[in-house]
Write a structure and sequence with these properties.
It contains ten helices and four strands. By secondary structure, it is of the alpha/beta class. It has one domain: Uracil-DNA glycosylase-like domain (Uracil-DNA Glycosylase, subunit E, 3-Layer(aba) Sandwich), CATH 3.40.470. The chain has a four-stranded parallel beta sheet. The protein is globular, with a radius of gyration of 16 Å. The chain binds iron/sulfur cluster. The site of iron/sulfur cluster has 13 residues, from helix 6. This is Uracil-DNA glycosylase family protein. InterPro entries: HI_0220.2, Uracil-DNA_glycosylase-like, Uracil-DNA_glycosylase-like_sf.
């Protein structure tokens, strides 16, 4: 691993900046940065924050959402987690916790301020960024409109960036309402993923 990523990754794994904030959430959990990075990664997954499952396992996208995301990308699990393929750079590296109704909270804004630029600067091989969900799209792309419009206009960001909905099974009705996603965006996404991994 080149020296650029090593110190950033080591410091990120140890980060406990949000401990007082997380202690006040309904989940009352401690910070656990979920770090999946590699200096030669070709693809960045720019998501919102890990959920409770990733917080428990320590591994991002090893859940039904990850299965769907890999299907969208045309990758199997082994390739997805292989060194040099994917780096997960969310707005918040820790599970933000839940409110009293069990809804996931937004990631603390300080996380992106502290880490995003440093991490991305240490990933020089990235050729493709997948920006997942409305919150990440607002932060990364400056898009204020509805997520559907941002994703529908995916060609505006090609070839380096592709906005996507969250691959949660909760979005299955959205996928049914928007057949162009499956018919037009996914074939282009799979082709782009194959290109950047073959490059
Ligand atoms: S969310 Fe980010 S800033 Fe907060 S403790 Fe986790 S890694 Fe640190």
């Amino acid at each position: 691993m080149p020296s650029d990523l090593r110190p950033v990754e080591s410091a990120l794994v140890e980060c406990r900046h949000c401990a007082p904030h997380f202690a006040k959430t309904a989940t009352g959990h401690a910070p656990r940065p979920i770090v999946h990075l590699h200096h030669a990664a070709r693809i960045v997954i720019a998501s919102q924050a890990p959920g409770a499952r990733a917080h428990a396992s320590g591994v991002p996208f090893r859940d039904p959402s990850g299965v769907r995301l890999r299907d969208w990308m045309g990758l199997d699990q082994q390739t997805f987690f292989a060194p040099g393929v994917v780096a997960v750079v969310p707005m918040g590296f820790c599970f933000p916790g839940q409110d009293a109704e069990g809804n996931d909270l937004r990631p603390p804004a300080i996380c992106a301020e502290m880490w995003q630029e440093r991490v991305l600067a240490a990933l020089p091989a990235v050729r493709l960024t997948l920006v997942i969900g409305a919150v990440a799209q607002r932060q990364r792309l400056g898009r204020r409109g509805p997520m559907t419009e941002t994703v529908r206009n995916w060609r505006d960001h090609a070839p380096g960036v592709v906005p996507l909905p969250h691959p949660s099974w909760r979005n299955t009705p959205w996928l049914k309402r928007n057949p162009w996603f499956d018919a037009e965006l996914l074939p282009a996404l799979r082709q782009r993923v194959a290109e950047v991994l073959a490059d």
